[in-house]
Amino acid sequence: MTLEDVKDIFRQFDKFKKSIAQISYDEANKETLCSLSNEIYCYDDIIGSRFVGHDTIKSFDGIPFKDDWIHFIEFKNGKIGSKRKQDIRLKVAEGLHYLERVLLNSEFFFANHIKTKFILVYSEEKNQQESVGQKILNEGLLAFSTLKYNKFIDDKYDVKWKYVDKAISLSEKRFVEEKDQYI
Predict the structure, then answer these.
(1) Which residues contact 154 (CB under 8 A, 6 or more apart)?
(2) The whole model's pTM is what?
(3) Average confidence (pLDDT) over 21-47
(4) What string of H, E and C letters represents the secondary structure of the chain?
(5) Measured between alpha carbons, how far is residue 68 from residues 1, 83, 131, 142, 169 in Å?
(6) How far apart are the first and last CA of the chain?
(7) Whether residue 150 has pLDDT greater than 50
(8) 10 and 99 in contact (C-beta within 8 Å)?
(9) Is the separation of the CB atoms in 175 and 121 below 8 Å?
(10) For 51-60, 67-76, 97-106, 151-160, which range has the lowest pLDDT when averaged over its residues?
């Protein structure tokens, strides 16, 4: 399967495309993290449409395709503490698991090498440390399969992390400035 095949599969979900401004809207704070009109797939809505009336799984917020990459984007408008770090890890692990098992096919990531990138977009104002996002990735996301994190997530998700080729974090300002690289 090629990236074009994946894009073809996703066309059935075109009705779930939304602007980044809509996807990055924070209900709790009643504000938008990134005021961009560019549309991407709202993965939360795709998941929600498949789990009507059931407990939903955790998932990252959006999926754009750019060049030879599938990007998985998570927008975090609030302060990122240890509980949120755990939540981010779970969102990526379950989001990838669902993407592979239900939307694509059973062993998609194992059988195909399509480049994937996880992008954490965070509020610079609420996370004053310049490198907070990368620190989160270094401490948790990329070290996810170590025993330190097994207590947070079912073991079946550990294997998913080897299918994330690259993980980066960007403040919302930098994401907006560099948007053409990601969307």
Answers:
(1) none
(2) 0.82
(3) 94
(4) CCHHHHHHHHHHHHHHEEEHHHHCEECCCCEECCCCCCEEEEHHHHHHHHCCCCCCCCCCCEECEECCEEEEEEEECCCCCHHHHHHHHHHHHHHHHHHHHHHHCCCHHHHCCCEEEEEEEECCCCCCCCCHHHHHHHHHHCCCCCHHHHCCCCHHHHHHHHHCCEEEEEEHHHHHHCHHHCC
(5) 13, 33, 27, 22, 19
(6) 22
(7) no
(8) no
(9) yes
(10) 151-160
Which residue type, as a one-letter code, is found at position 136? Answer: I
Residue found under tokens 């694509």: 104
Q: How far apart are CA 77 and CA 183, in angstroms?
A: 19
- Specify burial of residue 167 (Cβ count, 10 A radius: 0-12, 13-18, 19+): buried
**Burial of 168 (C-beta count, 10 Å sphere; 0-12/13-18/19+):** middle
What is the total residue count of the chain? 183
Q: Does residue 52 have a pLDDT over 80?
A: no
Token digits of residue 35: 């005021």
Whole-angstrom Cα distance, residue 70 to residue 8? 13
